[in-house]
What we know:
The protein is α+β, with helices and mostly antiparallel strands. Among the domains are: 7-13 and 250-382, Jelly Rolls, CATH 2.60.120; 27-161 and 198-242, Galactose-binding domain-like (Jelly Rolls, Sandwich); 752-818, Maltose phosphorylase, domain 3, CATH 2.60.420.10. 22% of the residues lie in helices and 25% in strands. It is built from 14 helices and 36 strands. Strands 10, 11, 15, 16, 17, 18, 19, 20, 21, 22 and 23 form an eleven-stranded mixed beta sheet that branches. It has a six-stranded antiparallel beta sheet with strand order 5-4-7-2-9-12, with no helix packed on it. A five-stranded antiparallel beta sheet has the order 24-31-32-33-36. Helix 6 packs parallel to helix 8 (557-577) and helix 8 (557-577) packs parallel to helix 10 (620-629). The chain is globular, with a radius of gyration of 28 Å. The N and C termini lie far apart (63 Å).
Amino acid sequence: MRVGTLLLGMVLVGGPFAAADRLPVSDAVRYRPWKAQWIACPGAPDRDAGVFRFRKVLETPAVPARFPVHVSADQRFILFVNGQRVGKGPSRGDLYYWRFETFDLAPFLKPGRNLLSAIVWNFGKDAPVAQVTDRTGFIVEADSEAEAGARTDATWQCAPEPGHQPWPEGVTALRQVGTYFVVGPGERLDAASYDWDWARLPGGDGVSGRWQPAVGQGGGNPRSIREAPGWALTPEGRWLVPNELPPMEYRQVSAGSVARIESTPDMGALSPEGLIPARTKASILFDRKELVAAYPRLSFSRGRGAKVRLSYQEALVKDRFTKNNRNEIAGKRLVGLTDLVLPDGGAGRVFEPLWWRTWRFLEIEVETAEEPLVIDGLEAFATGYPFAEKGRFDAGDTTLARIWETGWRTARLCAHETYMDCPYYEQLQYVGDTRVQALISYAVSGDDRLARQAIEAYDHSRRSDGITSSRYPSSPPQYIPPFSLLWVGMVHDFWRYRDDPAFVKRQLPGTRTVLDFYLAHQREDHLVGYVPWWSFIDWTGPFAAGVPPQDDNGGSTSITLQMANALREAADLEAALGDRARAAVYRQAAQKAVDAVVRLCWDESKGLVADTLAQKQFSQQANILAVLADAVPAGRRAAVLDKVLAEPILSSKDGSPKAGGAPAGGLGLAKASYYFRFYLARALEALGRGDEYLPQLEPWREMLDLGLSTWAETPDLAARSDCHAWSAHPNYDLLTIVAGIKPGSPGFKTVRIEPHLGALDRLNAAMPHPKGEIAVSYRRLGEKVGASVTLPAGLTGELVWHGKTYLLASGAQELTVPAR
């Protein structure tokens, strides 16, 4: 069967989407007890999977100028007024910091009777790992007595929605190939059981066998904490926590174009009406060319008795799970998350999953019965955190432009109501990933709201022994103690980029418990001893499960040096905002750890630090950290970095070492992954060798050659994740190392501009700053370099070029400096 084009290219443009604006939340709402009740469906189980509808008729004699309400649910809700989608939530948190959303309903109201409704779901044991939960419930609180009619109580009605349910079988194919997939189940629409009239105003009191009065759950104002659900009160005695983030995007994009059609019997070219004949099996593969995180929307008619499967994946695979070039389709199949749609023969039916999907490739598999199916349209509505791209990098190099564009797309797809390691497989906020993501956010968008929430979330996650969770929110806990050290680094990064000492000071009690935990695990020789849980450092072949070599009681160089760097970062914070005596203790402890590495782990014959004092294994990771911590004999940092750079780079094409501009062979060091090369870039920066940065982008160039539209997790043809934000750090590196824009003092109160152009002849770049835009332009002019720098009002700084410093004032200025 030949490839055809579906009706309108299968990308139908729908009507405009209206969304309620996020409103500021008054202290009265933040701190007063709510009068609304948490409600649920009568007889429904508290914690099992289920989808429910809630509704209430609201009388408004005239449309008010404002009608603010505060809404939450467990696990999730989508709110509607008169059938129009208002918004969704709640933004993910935990039971002690359960969030509510605030919406203005006025734009959706009309004089007379209005229908407030919500769909609320709980995916039970199949819920996403990132979804914390207590029990199914829904609540709407009025902002004032003027909106009291919207409050949830027994005047609201509830009914189960059996036609739209979680479908755990939708992840079977992924589980069979052994991948870790924890974003939630597929979903099933049984059109014959679905309430297609849910948006219609009821007549009379609306009570029927389906719709019944909702029941309270101990409510918004329980007599005692024992009566309240787990999310009713915060530790401070407040009720619920307002979501401080802007609404997530919901904008129409292409779902993809047809790349392949197969059918039995062969039905020839697909008709313009999108008709799939009766008694036919057909598969239609769509390719977007670029990855997207979006809500798909399938419109269909007829097809009683048919089965329709929608499957989503980042890349097609052959064999068990080998991807090769992502642009190649022949001989490959789609193994991915699947939703199931069962048509009822009606016209104008629509399926849109409750939770968004991620795909480059989307496959619709249809098996019709005695009635043909008509696919009326396939749409997609992209979602994600509404970051704006304010930073820019233009060197007149098409490959660097593609690296910038691909990195920003990767960062965007991994940012929603939390940062996420990946949008397809896990959707979990991990510290190691988040540190990189937050820096990209500061440098490219200037928006720090998601970073603030992440820093606070990790603080809330700390165990009684002091360390943070490795990922949060997360229903099952997971602990990677080195990630707690990176959280200290996150706080330090924030301190450098944002002038908010009060926020940073609130994190100091947490950073102290993390470092107290590590100092308690220091051995007598000052290396870090055995630490429980998962001591992940980096994904690389010689590290078992990402854990570097250790002796019988710890003794890892990498972990010890991560601790030393975190101690120094914390000392900066304590000296500026906390306890100066503690800062001195931290600096002394860091130096003892560094001295121990030099004394016990330095191998003079190799000119490198070993992974342990046994000096049998060596890694780029340990030596990158040694450069950053100055944990090598005096005057040897540059030589160590030379050896690290001389090592073959892991190739994206087959996962093997590749010369990448360096001599082949090398010293056999364990190779740094895409992720850990972020710290390699910091080592180049620390030694003033930024001119050597651009050749280090060879792995990213290879990923482009392999057809990736986002950056992968690891250099492996069977790499699980094709979109991992920790690999997007070149966007940050290009602005801070190549363009040279970085904070000159804590809080970004001044700027230091130290460009490293390498082989570039020109460069235009900009970085957002809280006071405005920092813009730079460089041009090689024979033996000179012309530099144009524009700083926003109130910001001053310095330009550093080959060791010479030039003062910068607010506004525009032109400088000419020697090329060398």
